[in-house]
Specification:
about 170 residues; alpha+beta; Pnp Oxidase, Chain A; 7-stranded antiparallel beta sheet; 3-stranded antiparallel beta sheet; 12 strands; Flavin_Rdtase-like_dom; oxidoreductase; Split_barrel_FMN-bd; NADH-dep_flavin_reductase; Flavin reductase like domain-containing protein
């Protein structure tokens, strides 16, 4: 017997715990989604759920909790900016994942297309028009059609894994 067959991790029978622990082990790309409230206040959050849906037309999706502080703005707006972040954006990703009252403190953003908050110095950004909001329990899948975008300087990728922002290591 090898050392792996002798070691067995305990089986988790609680569905929520199993879900959280398993998904912590799935490395995910990091993005930031920004919008404005109807009153014009900038809002945003760090997301690991961004995915491409189709190339023709160009569609992307992201998921969020409908109890999140940013949800009322996402529910009421037509457009969002989606930022692909890299390793140099680690501090900004952490800031946009923290206290919602302090997410836009500082000079890490400026008004962008349609007046939406544009995070500075990201490898890429896309302007998306919301074409669908699909409630699922207390969450929602948001579908956007990409209407515009821009590229910044290339950067090393950043992943979220085991509750940390990381750079990918050596090829597998």
């Amino acid at each position: 017997m090898d050392e792996h067959s002798e070691q067995q991790e305990p089986r988790i029978v609680d569905d929520v715990t199993a879900f959280k622990l398993a998904f912590r082990r799935l490395a995910a790309g990091v993005s930031i989604v920004t919008a404005r409230t109807p009153e014009g206040r900038p809002v945003g959050f760090t997301a690991t759920s961004l995915a491409s849906l189709a190339a023709h037309p160009p569609l992307a999706t992201f998921n969020m909790a409908r109890v999140a502080s940013t949800w009322p703005a996402i529910e009421q707006t037509d457009h969002v900016l989606i930022h692909i972040v890299g390793a140099r954006n680690r501090a900004v990703a952490a800031q946009l994942a923290a206290d919602n009252d302090k997410r836009f403190d500082g000079d890490h953003w400026a008004p962008g297309p349609l007046g939406l908050p544009l995070i500075k110095d990201v490898p890429a950004w896309m302007l998306g028009r919301i074409v669908g909001r699909y409630p699922v329990h207390e969450n929602a899948v948001i579908v956007v059609q990409i209407e515009d975008g821009g590229l910044g300087e290339p950067d090393e990728a950043m992943l979220y894994h085991e509750r940390e922002f990381l750079r990918p290591g050596e090829p597998a």
